[in-house]
Amino acid sequence: MSEISTLTIKIPVALKEKIKAIALENQLSLSAEVCQRLESSFDLPVKSGKKNTPPHHDEIDNQGIEEEVEQPLSQKELKKLRQLLKGSLKTGKKK
């Protein structure tokens, strides 16, 4: 028996539901259905139109979530933060 490993992936809910339905029809577990489909995908002929180039980032992570970039604190904000932290340290020592 071959070793088994866990793989966590993100897929659209609709695709998961399709796989579940097919797995039920084939009387297989979701994992078994996915394994069979992955294995068979390696047997398919490679399309001659595409070169063997690594996938672009957009092809891998298609969640459409932009990274939020926060602006660094200004000097005024840093000074106020330091004052607040010093104040909380002093009050913490009195207890």
Question: What's the gist of this structure?
Answer:
The chain is mainly alpha-helical. It contains four helices and no strands.
Give me the secondary-structure topology.
Layout (H helix, E strand, L loop, with lengths): L12 H13 L4 H12 L15 H4 L14 H20 L1
Protein name: Arc family DNA-binding protein
Total of DSSP H or I helical runs spanning 4+ residues: 4
Task: Indicate the multimeric state.
Answer: single chain
Distance between the termini: 63 Å
Q: Provide the structure class.
A: mainly alpha
Uncertain segments:
none
**Element string (H = helix, E = strand):** HHHH
* Helix content estimate: 40-55%
InterPro entries: Arc_rbn_hlx_hlx, Ribbon_hlx_hlx
Protein name: Arc family DNA-binding protein
Organism: Serratia aquatilis
Structure explained in plain terms:
This is Arc family DNA-binding protein. Helix content is 52%, strand content 0%. The protein has helices spanning 13-25, 30-41, 57-60, 75-94. Helix 1 (13-25) crosses helix 2 (30-41).
